Amino acid sequence: MSDKEELSAKLRIILRDIRYLTILKHLKIANIDYGKSIMLNTKIPLAEIVEILDDLEKLGLIERVHGATLKNTEAKFKLSSEVHKHHTYYRLTREGDHLLRHLEDRMLIDAYMDIVKNDNLALNILRLADELNADHALTYAKLTHKRLEEITPKIEELVKMGLLEEKNSKIIKFADRKAKPKKETRTHHKYYGLSRIGELVVREMKRRGILPK
């Protein structure tokens, strides 16, 4: 496997859970950081961060920082000029930094398409999300002729990947929700629509004929 193929394979792994990319991007900014500080800055629960850091280390994208002290020029989220290490600190490896430096929208879109292009249910949900703008799982289930028990985990998977996102507004206007002929409707359910990157992925899949225009 070439270096490019190996990098693409690792990218597909981390894109299945947007939290992985969030933590990598945080370490890019922080340079060196530890679990609790990452939690405070990313809002990801600490128990999940510990597990993700372990996975990213196994992938070779981050590494532990050795030594008894750190300078705040190294750990940018530390306020004092020098601190004793009471935690396990991490930083990007050269490969992790390389992945982020080359991670543009085009590479992201190609990787996401590679993940979902053979998943018919995921494609149908993304197509509907593009048409509906925002709706709840029951609507997606009805329109795909699937049981709610099938649709809900797939929606959660797409949210986890960062292609869908929960729409948090208390009231969704008719212009934003095309499946319901009311001027506005209160969100008694969780409503889901495309994220920014989800919109770009759907647009490209339409251009390539993977989804109908």
Structure write-up:
This protein is of the alpha+beta class and 213 residues long. The protein contains ten helices and ten strands. The chain has helices at 3-14, 18-30, 35-42, 46-58, 94-101, 105-116, 120-132, 137-144, 148-161, 196-207; strands at 33-34, 62-64, 69-71, 82-84, 89-92, 135-136, 164-167, 171-173, 184-186, 191-194. The strands form four sheets. The chain has a three-stranded antiparallel beta sheet with strand order 1-5-2. Strands 6-10-7 form a three-stranded antiparallel beta sheet. A two-stranded antiparallel ribbon has the order 3-4. Helix 3 (35-42) crosses helix 4 and helix 6 crosses helix 10 (196-207). The longest helix is centred in the last third of the chain and has 14 residues, at 148-161. Mean pLDDT is 84; it is low at 79-84, 170-177 and 181-188.
Brief rundown of the structure:
The chain is an alpha+beta fold and 213 residues long. The protein is built from ten helices and ten strands.
Give the tally of β-strands: 10
Gap from first CA to last CA:
36 Å
Q: Report the portion of residues in β strands.
A: 5-15%
Order of strands in the sheet with most strands: 1-5-2
The helix/strand series, from N terminus to C terminus, equals HHEHHEEEEHHHEHHEEEEH
Class inferred from helices and paired strands: alpha+beta
